[in-house]
Amino acid sequence: MLGTEIKQQFPETIVKENENLSHYTYTKTGGPADVLVFPKTKDEVAAIVAWVNEKQIPLTVLGNSSNVIIKDGGIRGIVMILTEMDHMEVKRHRLIVQSGARLIDASRMALAERLSGLEFACGIPGSVGGAVYMNAGAYDGEVEEVIESVVVITREGKIKTYEKNELEFSYRHSKLQETNEIVLEVVFHLEKGKQETIKARMDDLTALRESKQPLEYPSCGSVFKRPTGYFTGKLIQEAGLQGLIWGGAQVSMKHAGFIVNINSATATDYIELIAHIKEVIMEHYGVPLETEVRIIGEDTVGSV
After folding, report:
1. CA-CA to 279 of 20 to 30 Å: which in 34, 54, 99, 300?
2. CATH 3.90.78.10 at 214-296, yes or no
3. Annotated catalytic residue within 99, 127, 219, 222
């Protein structure tokens, strides 16, 4: 069995077999992974990458799984979840963070160290690695604005460092979406600030988020990218789709840009509802909607 082989090869690594990924995703949906591994160090990641390459086993990498929909068939091969890699340290104006740490926690560390620049991220639940991968942002702030450098490992097992200008950041995009490299560590360059000023800004943004976003339900966050010249939630609302229930999923009554799991939704419910919203918006307004959330995995459970 693949799981047994991995446990023998990596005795220090947490390994789980046939684990349902709905336990890890923010939508509470998703089928089983053949094998889940939770490395704690960069060396472990490098060793696992080398081993899967040698064995020609598929490898999927996840962070905090907050902006992903995993299909009901799950994921074949090995799924590497990086949440055990969450060490953070401060060196003067730099906050150095392992990729599995939550961006929320990085913003709190910055607050504790009187460093300004990550206030916008105080409500973003994704991992730091995922935030770099998709250039996450909120409330007029984006990750690219505070990045100094990023350490990655290529799918061939080579560790390299990117400076900010090499990452080709744009709206919800980085070069890593093309290279598929795995983020190991991020260096944020922040500015010294007054703790009370930083905290006040974070408190304001938290209150704004709680008032406008459906945090009381499982969701994958903002489902669609913002089309140029439009607000996605407003389009969905005006098309009469707000509140629409599809299986166990619903277009949020609080914010139409969110789809919430109100009654044991499946990933298929989410995917079909997303497709329906795209179709209606295109039909009504001629506006193509592009998903911000990543949709990955298999439609049916199989084997490697």
Report:
1. 300
2. yes
3. 222
